[in-house]
Specification:
There is one protein chain. By secondary structure, the protein is of the alpha+beta class. It is built from 16 helices and 30 strands. Strands 11, 14, 15, 18, 19 and 20 form a six-stranded mixed beta sheet that branches. Strand 24 and strand 25 form a beta hairpin. It starts with a strand and ends in a 10-residue tail after the last helix. One of its GO terms (molecular function) is metal ion binding. InterPro entries: C2_dom (IPR000008), C2_domain_sf (IPR035892), C2B_MCTP_PRT_plant (IPR047257), C2C_MCTP_PRT_plant (IPR047258), C2D_MCTP_PRT_plant (IPR047255), MCTP_C (IPR013583), QUIRKY-like (IPR047259). It is found in: Membrane.
Length: 738
């Protein structure tokens, strides 16, 4: 994307003035420089600006129309003209990096003949003019015509904070001052509460040693700690025997003093003194001591994204990282057809769009294109790839913060996002495509426009490291040696998301919490009837191949196509007579299926799927339920209706689970003698089958069973078989339910 760069350096020999400034004017743009600065000891007629302007430029249109660039100096106090310079844009040089920067030159300030004769115009101005792109090193510091609000619209690269899992193992507490007036035969209920920032957890009730009066827990609590490790871990020992909890003592432990480990090696425990309420700085009364085992776990990967869209699986400790296997290159070209997101200038619709891309720990933000429904960014970014089975996320937002006051703090509005899985990209191939930007609103699905991106995964085609990555565990080793629970991972992920959002909100320009939560899919685990339907149809789609195979076999055994059925008979005879060919034939069939589907492979990375998400014809009430808060903010009658609907759905699930359980119980009833006659029949039949299989060759039995299954419909009864009828008559435990 071409820009006209104008670098204003300084001037000399200007007429007397109080504060000079420079105007830059083209046929499409008009900008004004900041006031001049006079260095100490320098003459007042030699002001300095040292400012760069980047104006959107179309070289073809400018050359055809004979456009010019006018640069003029003015006095800020009297608005008097101090002189100017004019350039023909068709003669401005083009600079392509790595060319050296264009050196500024002195140009004589000119004016009308009357101004020059009267002395109102005199002096020289030092500047340089060239045509370049956003790759030019002057672009980041330049005032851009499509991004005038510099503080909020510069392209920026962010880094997520380095996050650790803090494992707190509470072992034992001694010398606690327990209240003496407890009822007889009442054991004190002592618990330990740990708090790190906004995170808190509490142990279960401690077991008391009657001989020593100590309490034991041996319980782990895990928190998320972010660098710089400036917080303190606070532990409080509480006596919750009565209705009002009483703090028996507390301890403050700086997180920076806690030992770090990268594997499962043993960390020794330490005793920490407990202080009373008046402590705080170590000067409180002694209230006992507590034994803790503390460590910062560097062998885990701290999940801040949903597992199915994770962009990084590396552990926290850098010494455990493996070398990168490639580079992911993303070109954010632009967007088109964006809808108006705000009203400005008397109700006129406007959109000030910017993009955010996230992969691994690196976030990037493009500049904001103001007041444009078809913004063009043409910005390129790269990431190192350590695992191909990761996801790149690109989101588009409307910038509100650049226009609102600091006290207003209005969040940026989401326009849409796309996800691209790196493993779906062929090596060293550039994919350039437009993707729809879709947002699900309480009113329904809405298309907000389209985004055009170019992406490439640069790596050797069959690099051994890339192929070996598919056979390695997805998560670091510690996740399998000392796994975390599902509920625990969800809680830790919520804490990590909150910490990342708080960290990026302190940057300049800030990435708002609403942007971070949207990019990280922080609400992906919320209840949604629409998502439940989508997951059900996904299961149906997964089982479709089995259903198709069953239909094909049914057509074979019903002789719908006699030629195919005869060929299946012949193939079956060959496989029975030569059983060594069964496994190779099966794998060869899989290879042929893969080769057949190669012609139907995706040509471009897939974006968001409306049909898969069940967002085409979603019920308005289900959408309203999906966007409802927790606890619900709807009227009681609405909540009651939704609860009844959920109960109806739960009844269906309950019935299906009961049917599955009944089938398993019938299998168990074959030999459990719950139905003595059925068990006797089953054992007798098994004995007969044993004798037949011992006497008759296995190949003959297999041929007989296969031909019996594929017999012609004229030899088949329409009623259920005796085997199926026998199984259905077996007892289950359903009749014993209350």
């Amino acid at each position: 994307m071409q820009y006209l760069f104008v670098r204003i350096v300084k001037a000399r020999g200007l007429p007397p003035n109080e504060s000079a400034y420079v105007k830059v004017r083209t046929s499409n743009h008009f900008v004004r420089s900041k006031p001049a600065v006079n260095r100490p000891g320098e003459p007042t007629d030699s002001p300095e600006w040292n400012q760069v302007f980047a104006l959107g430029h179309n070289r073809t249109d400018s050359a055809a129309s004979g456009a010019t660039l006018e640069i003029s100096a003015w006095d800020a106090s009297s608005e008097s003209f101090l002189g100017g310079v004019c350039f023909d844009l068709s003669e401005v040089p083009v600079r392509d990096p790595p060319d050296s920067p264009l050196a500024p030159q002195w140009y004589r300030l000119e004016g009308s003949a009357a101004d020059q004769n009267s002395g109102r115009v005199s002096g020289d101005i030092q500047l340089s003019v060239w045509i370049g792109t956003q790759v030019d090193e002057a672009f980041p510091e330049a005032w851009s015509s499509d991004a005038p609000h510099v503080a909020h619209t510069r392209s920026k690269v962010y880094q997520s904070p380095k996050l650790w899992y803090l494992r707190v193992t509470v072992l034992e507490a001694q010398d606690l001052h327990i209240a003496p007036n407890l009822p007889p035969l009442t054991a004190p209920e002592v618990r330990v509460k740990a708090q790190l920032g906004f995170q808190s957890a509490r142990t279960r009730r401690g077991s008391m040693n009657n001989h020593s009066g100590s309490f034991h827990w041996h319980e782990d609590m895990i928190f998320v700690a972010g660098e710089p490790l400036e917080d303190c871990l606070m532990l409080m020992v509480e006596d919750r025997t009565s209705k009002e909890p009483m703090v028996l003592g507390h301890a403050m432990i700086p997180v920076s003093s806690i030992e770090q480990r990268i594997d499962e090696r043993f960390v020794p425990s330490k005793w920490h003194a407990l202080e009373g309420e008046g402590g705080g700085g170590g000067g409180g009364p002694y209230c006992g001591r507590i034994s803790l085992r503390l460590c910062l776990e560097g062998g885990y990967h701290v999940l801040e994204e949903a597992a199915h869209v994770c962009s990084d699986f590396r552990p926290t400790a850098k010494q455990l990282w493996k070398p990168p296997i490639g580079v992911l290159e993303l070109g954010i070209l632009g967007a088109r057809g964006l809808l108006p997101m705000k009203a400005k200038n008397g109700g006129k619709g406007s959109t000030d769009a910017y993009c955010v891309a996230k992969y691994g720990k690196k976030w990037v933000r493009t500049r904001t294109i103001t007041d444009s429904f078809d913004p063009r960014w043409h910005e390129q970014y790269t990431w190192q790839v350590y695992d191909p089975c990761t996801v790149l996320t690109v989101g588009v937002f409307d910038n509100w913060r650049m226009f609102s006051d600091v006290s207003d703090d209005r969040p940026d509005t989401r326009i849409g996002k796309i996800r691209i899985r790196v493993s779906t990209l062929e090596s060293n191939k550039v994919y350039t495509n437009s993707y729809p930007l879709l947002v699900l609103l309480p009113s329904g699905l809405k298309k907000m426009g389209e985004i055009e991106v170019a992406v490439r995964f640069a790596c050797p085609s069959l690099l051994p490291d890339v192929c070996a990555a598919y056979g390695q565990p997805l998560l670091p080793r510690m996740h399998y040696i000392r796994p975390l629970g599902v509920a625990q991972q969800d809680a830790l992920r919520g804490a990590a998301t909150k910490m990342v959002a708080a960290w990026l909100a302190r940057a300049e320009p800030p990435l708002g919490p609403e942007v971070v939560r949207y990019m990280l899919d922080a609400d992906s685990h919320s209840w949604s009837m629409r998502k439940s339907k989508a997951n059900w149809y996904r299961i149906v789609g997964v089982l479709a191949w089995a259903v198709g195979l069953a239909k094909w076999l049914d057509n074979i055994r019903r002789w719908r196509n006699p030629v195919t059925t005869v060929l299946v008979h012949i193939l079956y005879l060959v496989l029975v007579w030569y059983p060594d060919l069964v496994v190779p034939t099966a794998f060869l069939y899989v290879v042929m299926i893969g080769v057949w589907y190669y012609r139907f492979r995706p040509k471009i990375p897939a974006g968001m799927d409306i049909r898969l998400s069940q967002a085409e014809t979603v019920d308005p009430d289900e959408l309203d339920e999906e966007f409802d808060t927790i606890p619900s903010s709807r009227r009681p009658e609405v909540i009651r209706a939704r609860y009844d609907r959920l109960r109806i759905l739960a009844v269906r699930v309950q019935t299906i689970l009961g049917d599955f359980a009944a089938q398993g119980e019938r299998i168990q009833a074959l030999v459990s003698w719950r139905d003595p006659r059925a068990t006797k029949l089953f054992i007798t039949i098994c004995l007969v089958i044993t004798i037949v299989l011992y006497v008759v060759p296995a190949k003959m039995v297999a041929v007989a069973l296969g031909f019996y299954y594929l017999r012609h419909p004229m030899f088949r009864d329409t009623m259920p078989t005796a085997t199926l009828s026998f199984f259905r008559r077996l007892p289950s435990l359903s009749d014993r339910l209350i």
